[in-house]
Design brief:
Length: about 425
């Protein structure tokens, strides 16, 4: 028999109360419904891996599964139905976020109406805190839906203001690295370590020789991948620094060891902006090899990376590619952060996870092309300033990082957790 409270909840949510004897049959016909909400490109990649894992597990169990998502085309291709495409709606910096406010509000009205109409069994939130934290509050307080925060926002590294909200409204927090796990445990969250999905995703990357063949690179000189941006504003603030550093490296290496620079781009417009700024700072565009496919081809081909901070730092580490990290925010955001006394102990995700300086990292005024190029040349074996100790220290840190990230199967473990909330 069904308890009176359960009967009342069923009526409240527009479901027909059922007896225990035929409850299983009702759930089987209805199928399971999962809602996913995320924002940026990397989270879209992680969401896609999760969707594939959930569909695979559902088939094994003979479950019908419907996944609706605020995400990008990768998640859609993996088998989710898009409520809205949010892959290009995340930003870094306050000023840059302003143009995205109105589209985000409009999309939130659409998704909230969708939730009221479809009533998913569980919502899975990936990062995207500016949108997902208020959305999670709506899901819990207004709709009484279970919520899983997978890859919780890493803002706790500089501010604890949202930690309590994540813990309060998450039925479960699924952490991807140990220091994150410890933070949310100490804050009282129901948190579990599932490992990092990049461990599986990077395992499918090509070997260096194969990657260079795919890029049509034939050179005796070093191959350096340049990773300035996944967002438009990063092209403006980060790319000129990396381009100048690349130009300095070219000057110091000479003609015999002239480097080839690889850049992964999403479209022709992005490539044009990269070429324009490169020419402005004195980097020979003829040295640039552009790649519009899977970005891991570009990463795998490299002897070294000059890169922005982000998940790509972990990808490079798992691929064993030495890296130098640089980042710069717009002056408005930087000044506000300074006034609020927000300080970053580390900016590279590798250093954040390991809680120590594994890779050289430079932010704001410290992100100087001369300094970056000096650090890079120490990691190149063909350079006259090559420092074998610096390279080995970084690679040894990479090996320890891989252990910290857990073994393969993160997306499968998350799929198990999510479907446990479903009929």
């Amino acid at each position: 028999r069904i308890e009176p409270m359960a009967m009342a909840m069923a009526k409240r949510h527009g479901r027909t109360p059922v007896r225990a004897s035929n409850a299983h049959e009702w759930k089987r016909k209805r199928g399971a419904k999962v809602l996913i909400s995320t924002g940026d490109t990397m989270a879209d990649i992680h969401a896609a891996s999760l969707v594939r894992a959930m569909h695979r597990l559902a088939r094994e169990r003979g479950m019908e599964l419907q996944v609706d998502a605020l995400a990008g085309i990768r998640t859609e291709d993996a088998g989710a139905k898009l409520i809205g495409n949010t892959a290009s709606m995340s930003s870094i910096g306050l000023w840059e976020a302003l143009p995205l406010v109105w589209p985000s509000l409009q999309l939130q009205k659409v998704v909230r109406d969708h939730v009221k109409r479809e009533r998913p069994d569980v919502a899975v939130l990936l990062d995207y805190p500016g949108v997902n934290i208020p959305f999670q509050k709506f899901l819990k307080k207004d709709m009484a839906l279970p919520c899983i925060y997978y890859i919780p926002p890493n803002e706790w590294l500089w501010s604890k203001s949202r930690t309590n909200s994540v813990c309060k409204y998450s039925d479960k927090i699924l952490s991807v690295f140990p220091s994150e796990l410890r933070h949310f445990q100490q804050a009282g969250g129901n948190v579990e370590f599932v490992g990092h999905p990049l461990v599986d995703q990077v395992s499918h990357a090509p070997q260096k020789r194969e990657a260079r063949e795919m890029l049509s690179i034939q050179t005796d000189g070093p191959v350096i991948v340049l990773l300035p941006a996944s967002r438009k504003q990063e092209v403006r603030y980060v790319w000129p620094i990396l381009a100048r550093a690349a130009a300095i490296i070219t000057q110091r290496m000479g003609n015999e060891q002239r480097p080839t620079f690889v850049i992964s781009v999403i479209d022709d417009e992005f490539q044009e902006r990269i070429e324009l700024i490169a020419a402005e700072v004195g980097l020979d565009v003829q040295q640039l090899v552009f790649w519009k496919g899977d970005s891991r081809v570009a990463l795998s081909a490299a002897d070294l990376a000059l890169t922005k901070s982000g998940s790509v730092n972990v990808e490079l580490a798992l691929l064993g590619v030495p890296q130098v990290v640089a980042y710069r925010l717009d002056q408005v955001t930087a000044q506000i952060a300074k006034l609020l006394r927000i300080k970053f102990e580390h900016v590279s995700l590798v250093n954040v996870i390991m809680e120590e300086k594994i890779v050289p990292e430079y932010i704001q005024e410290e992100a100087n092309p001369e300094v970056i190029s000096n650090a890079a040349l120490k990691l190149l074996s063909c350079s006259t300033t090559f420092d074998p100790g610096a390279l080995e220290k970084q690679l040894e840190g990479y090996r320890r990082l891989e252990v910290e990230l857990g073994g393969p199967g993160a997306s499968d473990r998350v799929a198990e957790e999510v479907l446990a909330f479903c009929p």
